Each structure stands twice: as structure tokens, then as C-alpha cells.
Amino acid sequence: MSWLVTGGAGYIGSHVVLALQQAGLSPVVVDSLSSGIRGFVAPQVPFYQVSVLEREPLTRIMRDHGVQGVIHLAGYKYAGESVKYPLHAFEQNVTGTARLLEAMEAAAVGNIVFSSSAAVYGTPHEDLVTETTATAAQSPYGQSKLVAEWLIRDQAVAAGLRHTSLRYFNVVGSGHDALYDASPHNLFPLVFAALGAGNTPRIFGTDYDTIDGTCVRDYVHVVDLALAHVAAARTLAADAGLEPVYNLGSGDGVSVREIMAAVARVTGIPFIPVEEPRRPGDPSRIVADGTLAARDLGWSMRHSLDDMVASAYRASLSRA
Question: How far apart are CA 215 and CA 43, in angstroms?
Fold first, then answer.
């Protein structure tokens, strides 16, 4: 039996595929390659350039490979850009999830692990976000992820689907030097790109009510995240109960200034960040509580901040 990974040629998806292989499971990848990279998927892994909007090909692939479950990572993941392109965000993340669920029902596939996002919380008032924190998504991206969660829950009631959704903030690091974060919007790629071009990375806001005045955010290593997806898949396949949602978080977070210091320390490139004014709407601190995921999925932060930076930097050099 195998697991279908949608978006398996992406940064996170390719790490999930690698974790499935290392766990002795059999991944099958579908990816439209709109942002994924074909070279991220090993030649021995079955690969199909198919969008989650294509119900019939998805059904056929699941039947042909005897798929027992889906790890759904495909989607449009840019919160800021989704404000400009809300229809595209909803088509990819909501309609795409609906088509995938239809294909799963047609192929009699009864398990799904959904890669959701902490963007469903918007800007929460509490510093430590739990699964009971009110959802108040503030971007079409966050809204579309929340609606996709609702779709999955409703289908579970209608068709007996076993499911869980994993919510997380900032994913960094690499589990293999050839697998890098290619996003033009994420902090680590932006910092490495600036250093590579001989420029100085920037910090936006140094007067927040935090330990060093800069924003504190939750960063998790992509390998730890991938292992949580595999643990969720195995648990669902064993017909064991899971909560509908889990936060994958550190519980304490890291400040932007701490990240900059780690980058300088690990790369050996000394720099003093340029300090810019705050950006509108940036909260001082958002950190997720991973207690439930630790209890049910064995979730833990196995990598230090230096591990995250070092692995991400090595991988970024492979792009050259």
C-alpha cells in the first residue's frame, strides 16, 4: 500500500516524500510543478505532473497504485500575494481540496493528512496559540486553508473519512543539501540572497515588547515537520483516533535578531542588520503550543536554531 503526496515536488513535500521512504512506506507524488521542482523527487518515486484540480487523473492514480491515504500539501501558499489574487488562492486551496476529496471517494481512499497553516489564526491576542485559539484568518490564503479544513471535516461526516490537519508557522532548514526553500517571500531565502549579493539583511521593527525588541516567531525544522506528517499518516492507517487539528510549534519561538545572529555565526559572514521601521500589522509575538502533537504524534523540536540555519544555508548554496 502507498501514500499519495500532493505537492510532493515542493520544499516541504519533497521532505515528506523522503521521510516516507525512510519509514519504509511507498510514496506516490502528484505535483503541477507550478512552484515545485521535478528534481526534488527521486527517480524511483512514481511521479505525475497533475494538478489537484484534475479529479479523473487523481482517481486513476490512486486506483493504479493502491493508495491507502493522502498527504495533501499542494496549494497556493503565499499569504501576502493572496490578497492580490484571492480567486486563485481559493481555486487552488478550496476547489483543489474538493476535487481531491471527490477523487478519494471515487477511489475508496479513506485517510487524509492535510497540511494546513497557522495563518488560520490571523493575529491572535494570546502569545501562545493552542488548538482552541479562535480562528480569524486575515488573508485569502488563511481563509482558504480554514475552508479546506471544513471541507475535510464535512466529508469525514459524510463518508467516514479519517483525517487530521496540521497547522504550523515558519518552516526552515533542510534534510538534504539538494532540497532548498525556493520561496521568494520567506525570511531565510531572503537573508541568504541578500548576503550572496553583498547586501545587508534588514530587520523591520526593533521596538516591540519582546526580549530584544524584534518580532518573535515560531520556526520549525522541515525534517521535524515531515516526521509529524508521517506519524499522522501511520496513525490514521492504523485506524487510531486523532484530533481534527494539531499545532506543530516550538512553544517559545525565536526573535528576528536571534536569527540574524545565528546566520552570521553559522555562515561566518559578519554583518550588522539594517534596522527599518515596523511594518503595519506585524504582531510582536506569535508562537504555537505543540503539546497535543507531542502527545499523539511524538512531535518534538529535534533541531536547534543553528541546525536550522546551517542546513538551510548549505541547501541554498546548491542553487548556484
Answer: 41
